[in-house]
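Kindly inspect the following:
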Amino acid sequence: MSGCASTTSCGTSAPVQDPEIAQKIANHPCYSAEAHQYYARMHVAVAPGCNIQCNFCNRKFDCANESRPGVTSTLLTPEDAFAKVKLVASEIKQMSVLGIAGPGDPLANPKPTFRTMELVARDCPDIKLCLSTNGLRLPEFVDRIADLNVDHVTITINMIDPEVGERIYPWITWRGRRYTGREASKILSEQQLAGLAALTERKILCKVNSVMIPGINDEHLVEVSRTVKGLGAFLHNVMPLVSAPEHGTHFGLTGQRGPTPQELKALQDRCEQDDGAEMNMMRHCRQCRADAVGLLGEDRGDEFLPETFRGREIGYDLAGRQQAHEEIERWRTEVAATRQTLNISTGARTPDAPAAEPVRPDEVVLVAVATKGSGVVNQHFGHAGEFWIYEGGPGWARLVQTRDVDRYCNGPSDCDEDASKLDRTIEMLSDCAAVLCSKIGLGPREALEEAGIEPVEIYDLIDKAVAEVGARLVTDRAPAEVGTP
């Protein structure tokens, strides 16, 4: 059967029955799969140093062409970061979250990290503060994090077994000493789990990031998921290893491959199902740069270079932002009303109906969607740099994954004639029964049909379109075919 068997929505879960938690994630694009269609985030790169070495990491500066963690074009002082936040928040009013995620580790650079947060908390009261850390120094800063009202912390936990960890981490620096091998991984794991437990005791929402490394920790991550759930983690984000040789990482240079989208989804499903960890999984992560700006899946950083904010007196348009957020919420309410009228479930429980248990159909298909956000199928097939993968079926439209592809059209008449890009896109979508997009050319249409993927031109709400197309395909397909890749 295609898709994951859990009945909870990716990026939200049963804890959303708690109104306090629901309010915390309502407009957070990482913690809510629905919110990420409407709200933007930004990261500021104020933390250059790191206290561990990961075999999958190569922190790069002045790098504009790579979209992955640890990469930035410009390091900022807290004061410059504050000016940039005010400018971005006033220009991109749907920006709701500020994260500090590098390019090193924020807690290995506590002074600039906390100074930046102090400035933002003082003058930008409507922006949520987030922190992403490897967790090595987390226990010593839990009180400081709580004092700043940081409601969301992400901890990267790739193992709980030092024997696995020594294949991922060559060394750590802790309390003035460098540790290597299994000892290093033991210290790191103990600190990570202690920090997670301390945060959840203070009701700070925690997301755990894990990098899936085939042959090293892929089987182990189900146990990681089970363990962090037991310590109170709200969300688990299993991400694919990025290991292209040109990135210069150890894994990239030694040929360690990353998982296929299908392998990644299968592991996420295992972590989420009742025979795994029964953990709430994040399915819409984009593995953002340390200086990312905009909606998840886009990067508008080039619009906000240092010359646009450095040395300037920048105001903060709080009233304008509040109005923009009110408009977003009005639209979200309309979309929710349409779903309710059509009796479509996205797998999410909501605070106003905590007892409602979403019921997933026995038969679903995977449907790929080209979208620019706002909950609408609104993008040309050739213009898509990513596709959102949904489970579709009668009354069911559930986001389960996003997949990057090489965009081969840059305008109405400017399309790459290199057939390999289209071939790679079709391979990326090979387990999908249909692709929904606002427009598609004749060549890609024929290529999709030949691959057994139905192209559907439509401009409509994603949930409505996915449920309708999914229901039709489930009905049309022979019983033996339903739910198969």
In short: The longest helix spans residues 318-342. The CA atoms of residues 208 and 228 lie 8 Å apart. The mean pLDDT is 86.
